Amino acid sequence: MDAVFRALADPTRRSLLDQLFEQDGQTLSALEQRLPMTRFGVMKHLKLLEEAGLVTTKRRGREKLHFLNPVPIRLIHDRWVSKYAEPWAAALSELKTTIEEQAT
Amino acid sequence: MNAQNSGKRPWTASPEEKVFEIYIRTTPERLWEAITDPEMRGRYNFGVQVLSDWKPGSHYALSAPRAGDIASGENLEVDPPRRLVQSFTALWSDDVRSEGTSRVTWEIEQVADSCRLTVTHDQLAKDANGEIYGGWPMILSGLKTLLETGETLTTPGSLRYSQAPLSPA
Asked: Which of A29, A41, A90, B82 sits a CA distance of 20 to 30 A from B158?
């Protein structure tokens, strides 16, 4: 989890994730063209994102494709949300019903 | 492009493919069981059970007693406890039904005392409805919690089909 926060703490790495969110499965060359950075710089940032599990790669022929893996972010969400979520969600849903009843 | 690539899509841009990866401290056998056992699946997959005889080419359905089938398809490759390839047709709304059939590949690889599970959801329509593949992070998070702690994750929506009322209130 430390690795995830460290990886997300850098604006360039967040923008790499944004690029993959926009279009998943990109090669290093494609990502390099979209960022004002050297190939080496992009590689370095991708490596940290991979180590944090936020980017996963697949080989296709000679190419290596990079995919955004949102699962570690979900684990962080669930760690702090799930314990409190049920009563809170129930209260919200009651509130919604009340508002809807008042609206009609 | 070249002979090696023929018959497959070009691999530079693949907006129709999504990859989800998670490490879970468990054995490949136990992970396989959690994916294919109706009862266990129901505890982390939106409350729906998976029903199949798991023979290659057989049919499967993700189904809840109250909600009916929410997805179904065919088991294209069944290689326990390593690899499962399934066709996938979402059935939970008219919107997702119109997206047609995609493909889900489960791959299990043992890494030290854990397993790396990779779920690849591909052959999606261009600009596919995010609902089709958007549930995987929640499902995999719930699967990890179940196998590592024996607990059921209670994030809102995570068990929505088991809690769905029989008829609208």
From this structure: B82
Reported as a single tens digit per residue, the pLDDT across A16-48 is 999 999 999 999 999 999 999 999 999 999 999
Mutation pick from A71, A75, A79 vs chain B, by most beta carbons of B within 10 Å, is: A71
- Sketch the domain layout of chain B as residue ranges: 14-152
- pTM check: above 0.90: no
Chain A residues in contact with B145 (beta carbon < 8 A): 78
Whether B130 and chain A come into contact, CB under 8 Å, resolves to no
Provide ipTM, 2 decimals: 0.81
For residue A80, what is the nearest residue in chain B, using CA coordinates?
B155
**CB distance A8 to A55 below 8 Å:** no
Q: Provide, as residue numbers in chain A, all residues whose Cβ is less than 8 Å from the Cβ of B156.
A: 85-86, 89
Q: Do B17 and A81 touch (CB under 8 A)?
A: no
In the DSSP assignment, the letter for residue A26 is: B
Give B14-152's CATH code, choosing from 3.30.70.20, 3.30.530.20, 3.60.90.10, 3.40.50.1000.
3.30.530.20
Closest C-alpha to B121, from B108, B139, B134: B134
pLDDT one-digit tens code per residue, B108-134: 999 999 999 999 999 999 889 999 999
